[in-house]
Amino acid sequence: MTEYFSFELIAQDGRARAGIFHTPHGDIYTPCFAPVGTQATVKAVTPQQLQELGAGLILANTYHLYLRPGDDLVAEMGGLHQFMSWSGPILTDSGGFQIFSLADNRVIDDNGVTFKSHIDGSTHRLTPEVSMSIQENLGADIIMAFDECASPYDRGYNERAMQRTHKWAKRCVDVKTRQDQALFGIVQGGIFLDLRQQSAEYTGALDLPGNAIGGLSVGETKDEMHAVLEAIDPILPLDKPRYLMGVGTPEDLVNCVLRGVDIFDCVLPTRLARHNAAMTEKDRLNLVNATYARDPRPIDESCTCYTCRNYSRAYLRHLIVAKEMLSATLLSIHNLHTLLQLARDLRQAILEKRYQSFVDEYFK
Amino acid sequence: MTEYFSFELIAQDGRARAGIFHTPHGDIYTPCFAPVGTQATVKAVTPQQLQELGAGLILANTYHLYLRPGDDLVAEMGGLHQFMSWSGPILTDSGGFQIFSLADNRVIDDNGVTFKSHIDGSTHRLTPEVSMSIQENLGADIIMAFDECASPYDRGYNERAMQRTHKWAKRCVDVKTRQDQALFGIVQGGIFLDLRQQSAEYTGALDLPGNAIGGLSVGETKDEMHAVLEAIDPILPLDKPRYLMGVGTPEDLVNCVLRGVDIFDCVLPTRLARHNAAMTEKDRLNLVNATYARDPRPIDESCTCYTCRNYSRAYLRHLIVAKEMLSATLLSIHNLHTLLQLARDLRQAILEKRYQSFVDEYFK
User: Helices in chain B by DSSP H: which ranges?
Assistant: First the structure.
């Protein structure tokens, strides 16, 4: 693809794909789930623990790091990899999604977005050019085009946001300078399949090293999300990775890999952990529940993570009740393992050409 | 000493001692600093991290675990080692010190203490017999006699508290049943050297597997503490470990090993970590300080801990400012390493018969 990036499509099974995305900081085996490290740390776990979990890619947020500690400071400290001591691949988003989520505290125009910081109310402006400059300072391996994410059911708004997203993607391509960063374009269009197809055509034609799908898991139904993925799968280049932004749950991974997605990210595992919930492949346990007070079993008897190999539900509940920080760490390790292991299992099923039977078994 | 416990005095250099205390869960190399895991967790670090730090002994608090989750629950889960997944040696205190700290919420009589829980105000009673029963349920390797810790300058109170401590120690010996736990007696007597000597005679004569020194670092001066240690050093049995409870700082370790102490514990390293302070052998850095915002250096350039090998002061400050939990973990790792490494260095200096020159160099 380039000197720094290439994607090997190793196996296909139906629309499901297994591949390797080669980056300057290592190989990403797909399907892949990326833990989210919003402020240059995956909350409550160390990079060493992430490495032991087998995380292949982690995500950091441009909006947050731009505001604090500042992308210039991160650059001065040697870039994100060195700053947070993560030697594997990193992806940064464009900052757009967080800013659009600020609702009343931002104004969008054709050229960019003016917004107020959630930290101190100070006014800032992000444009495609500024987003690229910040992301070049941060230095992630994969960077995202600056896009506009519209409310999923508003057709007029989605048409305008999609056009803007396309223009902005082109501007990102034009100003990007670093060869050791792969810029991904973003498909928008809400739940409207014709817009999504149009956006996939446009984005795919930019011939970037990867393509992302934005504006999903923002209020639409699962069926609508699946329909979008099915509509764009035949259009997006087969020989490039597809990244579904901000998704998902274990079910989402299974369903969306089935529809041609390679890369996922979501705050869910670490956020649930901080709210005392343990994920299993198909269920959740709220460990604060008194039911678990004297339960000697691990969260999941089939799980091989550090937490399940060493701790009872009774101990985890004790930590939660006693307000000990270790509960967030141990639950984050378990929840991240659940999604990372699921992604590895999905890959194995694809390599062995039994993906559909895996799905059938999973939802039985 | 017994089938389960023995102490090898490997080297002496002046009053400083290097030894090995053999326990059912492994050997404790002395001088030793024990991290404190009040509620069956050393705050913000995993047992795996503690093991990587080379911690030889950790402490847990009987008062806290009796109230929550309950010693019966811990016993049902296989005891503290299994409950908190720490396979090395554990020490529990008797519960006395925490209860005496409750001030207005406890009444002491010759038979024990009646107190109100800091959690829900419920009334409880601890006696030597109850403390032993709780500690047997918890199952630590080293358990402590139930003692009374008096205000250091009140002679009358110290006389009474010492007598009570002696009687209670005898009662603890009488009711103790488990052979795989080593009971340590506790020397009391405030700053009064004759009382301390009397208490050391009595406690030493109980011929227990180890002796502890209580009621220090509770308001007296360093000189007074040192004088007490010097007064009792010739009296306490040489062939048994001496444990100075609730002490200390790096300086305390250096000074008290010089005066014949083998084992220390203190919440300081992990508590400071949660208040953004990094310890070095001789100093402290408050990492929230803006001075460190763009400081690419590790906390201590000569430190070999995970935190110093991987992180800049700038990154640690960012975590603190952004209120990320990882700061407590990384600073706890560093602070614990500082004390654990110092204890190893002290041991090496004793083995090489250069302890006094180590001390001179340290305080230069």
Answer: 47-52, 62-67, 71-76, 80-84, 96-100, 128-138, 155-175, 193-205, 222-232, 250-257, 268-274, 306-310, 313-321, 326-351, 355-362
